[in-house]
Task: inverse folding
């Protein structure tokens, strides 16, 4: 790690070095110095949460949802499909072209793909753990059975 002479930025020679530097414990001075920023962050987070609550009530989505829209939609679809599956089990509704057992299997496959996307924390995990394949399959099934997602 060294400081750039031109603009004073810190340059790391490896990712591990940067990670080690960023994860080191804060000194007492750093805790005192950054407290006002942390308080301000909590206030703005609180404000955004309240605004988002009203925006979702009015429009069904909030500006903050659009910041990471793919993750937001994956959460909504995962939760919605899980609920649909429980309702489907209770009253045995399914599309005419598939049997009841096949429909439950299709719902499971869609749920599995969106659950994998929701639980995926970073891009490397997304690529390496077959999350992409599961998600693509879920999206194919969602597209095919979109008009059958009701109970």
Result:
């Amino acid at each position: 790690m060294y400081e750039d002479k031109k603009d004073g930025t810190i340059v790391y020679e490896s990712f591990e070095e940067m990670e080690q530097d960023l994860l080191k414990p804060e000194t007492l001075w750093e805790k005192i110095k950054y407290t006002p920023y942390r308080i301000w962050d909590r206030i703005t987070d609180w404000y955004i949460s309240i605004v988002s609550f009203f925006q979702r009530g009015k429009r069904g989505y909030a500006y903050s949802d659009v910041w990471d829209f793919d993750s937001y939609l994956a959460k909504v679809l995962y939760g919605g499909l899980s609920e649909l599956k429980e309702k489907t089990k209770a009253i045995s509704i399914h599309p005419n072209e598939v049997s009841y057992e096949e429909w439950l299997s299709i719902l499971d496959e869609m749920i599995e793909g969106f659950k994998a996307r929701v639980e995926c924390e970073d891009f490397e995990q997304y690529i390496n753990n077959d999350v992409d394949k599961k998600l693509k399959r879920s999206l194919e099934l969602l597209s095919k059975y979109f008009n059958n997602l009701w109970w």
